[in-house]
Amino acid sequence: MNKTVVISGGSQGIGKALVKKFISEGFKTFTCSRKAASLAALSEEINSPLLHTFVADLSQKDQTQAFAQFVLAQSAQVDVLINNAGFFLPGQIQNEEENVLERQIETNLYSAYHLTRALLPSFQAQQSGHIFTICSTASITAYTQGGSYCISKFALLGFTKVLREELKTQGIKVTAILPGATLTPSWDGVNLPASRFIPADDIASTIWAAYQMAPSTVLEEILIRPQLGDIDLD
Questions:
Q1: pLDDT tens digits for 44-63?
Q2: What is the pTM of this model?
Q3: Which superfamily is assigned to 4-224 in CATH?
């Protein structure tokens, strides 16, 4: 029987790399996106019966729960959850537009919180599984152009730390991934060479390696940066 992975925000960037990696390893793979066209393009590119897609805006609690119910209706057991959905808006607290904080908290934090809670009973029933959360170097480093994004990612790392403490005695692993600048559409328009970024495939390979470890071992946090360090947005 194929194992099951749930990857939020899997139509591009790190999420897409993760979808490809886990399908290549034989996992029944569920993912979502706000855009039906993006999911259709993903399905056409991958062309695998292991891929199951669902249109959902995970900044909305009801749509997050609908995605979880879609997964559970087709797979009684979830082996891996990767909370990847999120977006980046550069700015500063002192001059950001109104509602930038709310929008990034809803997408970057609440989506992970509500999706994890909805799927957690499946992990607890089997007393096993692995939950990954895509945080950021912005979860531990304050950037002058980070603004509300940094706030949301600091909170996301806090969520992951709490989850780790709650679940460690239940056989469920929890890992925070903290990537630096990764070559994804978030950086479109930035005049820098690809060599200045982390390839998204490297993030996917790292997560797969962490998943492969013995049941008695967990990587709690994985910090990944470009060889030349963080990119200065100033």
A1: 999 999 999 999 999 999 99
A2: 0.95
A3: NAD(P)-binding Rossmann-like Domain (3.40.50.720)
Q: Using CB atoms within 10 A of its CB, is residue 229 exposed (0-12), middle (13-18) or buried (19+)?
A: exposed
Rounded distance between C-alpha atoms, residue 143 and residue 222, angstroms: 20
Parallel, antiparallel or unpaired: strands 4-7 and 28-33: parallel
**In the chain, where the domains are located:** 4-224
